[in-house]
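Hi C.,

You asked whether I'd gotten around to modeling the 149-residue construct. I have! Everything is below, sequence then structure, no commentary in between.
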Amino acid sequence: MRTPGDPAPDVTAPNQDGESVSPAFDDPTVVYFYPKDFTGGCTIEANEFEDVLPEYREVGIDVYGVSMDDVESHAGFAEEEGLSFDLLADPDGELAEAFGLDVEEGYTDRRTFVLADGTVVAEYDPELADPSGHAREVLADTKRDYVDG
């Protein structure tokens, strides 16, 4: 698993609109992995990231959600939940594997990475707790530690 200090992986994946996305990971970026679209905890987590997304964007932090669901599933999930950030489709688990996550079960565990200046700067295991409040915790930590000013 990628841990703080490791280089950011070079990844590309389609978002919910089928557009190819290749995050540079130069500016502070949050990449959160979740098990599956339309499930309880994953929906809570996605909605909480959406709720605080204006605050992330205000300070220049990009947010990406990733699961092993396909583009069509992500499109439906984003539309149903009103999500305006990119959900990256990773049906073959290539992104998850690039971050060192296990994909053998056909889904990933919940895991969040913060990247900046081309490296992993923080890693969270929200699997240990309720996903409620996770998006705000990551925002506060990232603003404090990795946003200039």
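If it helps when you're writing up: The first helix runs from residue 40 to 58.

Thanks,
B.
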